[in-house]
Structures are given as C-alpha cells and as structure tokens.
C-alpha cells in the first residue's frame, strides 16, 4: 500500500504535506463490522478530521504547538465492507509498512477490534512491548456469540500474544464475571473504575519500555462522550482522561504508537464527542511523540 500520496479529503489540522519528512503518520481504520450493539464508528475518523479545524494548534497543558511537529495524515485505510478478517490483514500490512519506514503510528477507529492487528505489527518490532489500555470494557472475551472476531476480544487476543502480565487496563467498569476472574488468575493488570491515580502508580514500573497506548472513547462517561457504540454509565471525565494522557507524556515510558477508537458520530448530535476526540488526539500527538 502507498503511504506517501496526499489524502484528497479533509485532513487533521496542520497535517504536513510530505510523508517522507513527517515523523508521525495519522491514519483511519473505518471498520465496525463486528460491533455487538450500535454500528457507526467507521465514520469516526472522517468526522474527527473535519472538526479538528476548530481546535487550536497550541496545547496550554504541554506548552507545545502542532506547528512544531511534522505529521502526515494518510487518510483511511480502504477496508472491504463486512469482511473482518481481510480488513484486519490489511491493517496489519499497513502498519508493517509504517514501522519499516520508522514512523510513529497514530490510528483512529473504528471499532476496538482494529487495535488487534496493530498490536500484532507492533509486537514484531518491539518484542518487549507493553500495552496501556483505557476503556469501559474488559475486551477479554475469547468470542462473542461464538464469533472470535469481535470488538469484545482484542485485549484477550493481545494478552495471548504478548503475555497478560504486559497488559495494563484502566477505567474498566463492565465485562463478564469470567473476564475479571481470568485477568486476576493470569496476572494481568486490571484497574477498575479509575484511570489517573492507578496510572500514576504504574508508569514508573514501565520506564524505558516500549509502550502502545490504546484509548476507547467510552472510557469517558456518556455525559462527556455520548457518540459511541456502547455507552456505559459511571465513566471518567474528559479532564481526567486529559490528565492521564499528560501523565504518560511526562513519564519515562517510551510510547511507540497509539490509537483512539469507537467514536461514532451518528449518536453525537452536539458533536461533543468528536470535538473531544480531536482535542485528545492533539494532546497525544504533542505528548507521546518525543
């Protein structure tokens, strides 16, 4: 797949025109083929780009400006509608190419299953990879109604690949009883309800390690992010999520890639969620890329 051709649609604010000169590549994974409740997250990347024009380039949190960072918006990966396995294969192939070129990948979903092939590609390059996962849901099922390719399975698949002791999940407030029991039995690091405080305690133990950060927008309470496929009451505030991103940014962990998934604009009538997502991506860009 080509990466260096300019995207013809809307791009994330201040996207650089040159792939070769850019340190970071932003890309979309417009897939929602396996969702168990409400579809629509395949439209997330495009809408996040459109509303990004409304945010400032400068982050007062980090005292950094997007004008000082070269990143290339490559657009969305063309995925075959309804074909989950081929879509996942194409995402993995795409990431293999980005990593071979030494780029920092910043993905936009799409449902959370799109993170699975990204982790597979990251693990090939970083065999000591750790994952920081922020979500309302455990995503530790082996299958959903008998289907192993489901947005409720990516973290279980990742744990089976890189070892559950290398997975750190925060903000979890929903899941099957068996999922919580499995996480406890195998030594996975699962923190219920909160994000910022347990993250502060964990980050020093990950100093120097390559870390991939995956954020499901539904870690936020529906009051802060109604535009998602599986809303879940009792979540964190957008202020806490921003603080958690900044905590990672100021730590000694080596973030090697990240994504933000499950933004579904069709349920976001005030555009509150896509605007929040756009700001979160700005902070991830400025905070995670050293």
Give a nutshell description of this structure.
The chain is α/β, with parallel strands linked by helices and 290 residues long.
CATH topology: Arginase, Chain A
According to DSSP, the number of beta strands is 10
Query: What is the molecular shape?
Result: globular
The CATH class, by name, is: Alpha Beta
Output the radius of gyration.
17 Å
Helical/strand content category: alpha/beta
- Pattern of helices and strands: EHEEEHEHEHEHEHEHEH
Low-confidence stretches: none
Question: Taking all residues together, what is the mean pLDDT?
Answer: 96
Distance between the termini: 27 Å
Helix content: 25-40%
Number of helices: 8
Strand % is 15-25%
The major pleated sheet works out as: 8 strands, parallel
CATH level-two architecture: 3-Layer(aba) Sandwich
Kindly describe this structure.
- By secondary structure, the chain is of the alpha/beta class.
- It has a single domain, classed as Arginase, Chain A.
- Helices cover 31% and strands 18% of the residues.
- The chain has eight helices and ten strands.
- It has helices at 44-51, 84-100, 115-125, 154-162, 177-186, 196-202, 238-249, 272-288; strands at 24-29, 58-59, 64-65, 71-76, 104-109, 130-134, 167-172, 189-192, 210-216, 254-261.
- An eight-stranded parallel β-sheet has the order 4-1-5-10-9-6-7-8, sandwiched between helices. It has a two-stranded antiparallel sheet with strand order 2-3.
- Helix 2 (84-100) runs parallel beside helix 3 and helix 7 runs parallel beside helix 8.
- The longest helix has 17 residues, at 84-100.
- It is globular and about 50 Å long.
- The protein starts with 23 loop residues before the first strand and ends with a helix.
- 51% of the residues are buried.
- The mean pLDDT is 96.
């Amino acid at each position: 797949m080509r990466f260096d051709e300019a995207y013809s649609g809307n791009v994330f604010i201040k996207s650089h025109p040159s792939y070769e000169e850019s340190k970071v590549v932003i890309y979309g994974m417009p897939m929602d083929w396996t969702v168990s409740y409400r579809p629509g997250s395949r439209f997330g990347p495009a809408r996040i780009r459109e509303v990004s024009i409304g945010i400032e380039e400068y982050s007062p949190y980090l005292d950094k400006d997007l004008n000082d960072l070269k990143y290339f918006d490559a657009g969305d990966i063309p995925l075959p509608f309804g074909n989950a396995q081929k879509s996942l294969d194409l995402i993995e192939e795409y990431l293999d190419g980005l990593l071979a070129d030494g780029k920092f990948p910043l993905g936009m979903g799409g449902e959370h299953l799109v993170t699975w092939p990204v982790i597979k590609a990251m693990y090939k390059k970083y065999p000591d990879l750790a994952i920081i996962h922020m979500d309302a849901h455990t995503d530790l099922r082996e299958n959903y109604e008998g289907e192993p390719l489901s947005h409720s399975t990516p973290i279980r698949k990742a744990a089976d690949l890189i070892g559950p002791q290398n997975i750190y999940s925060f903000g979890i407030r929903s899941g099957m009883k068996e999922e919580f029991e499995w996480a406890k039995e195998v030594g996975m690091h699962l923190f219920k309800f909160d994000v910022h405080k347990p993250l502060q305690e964990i980050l020093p133990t990950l100093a120097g390690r390559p870390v991939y950060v995956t954020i499901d927008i539904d870690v936020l309470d529906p009051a802060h992010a109604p535009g998602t496929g599986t809303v879940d009451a009792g979540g964190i505030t957008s202020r806490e999520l921003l603080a958690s991103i900044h905590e990672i940014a100021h730590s000694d962990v080596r973030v090697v890639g990240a994504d933000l998934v499950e933004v579904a604009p069709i349920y976001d009538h005030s555009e509150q969620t896509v605007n929040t997502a756009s700001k979160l991506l700005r902070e991830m860009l400025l905070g995670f890329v050293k």
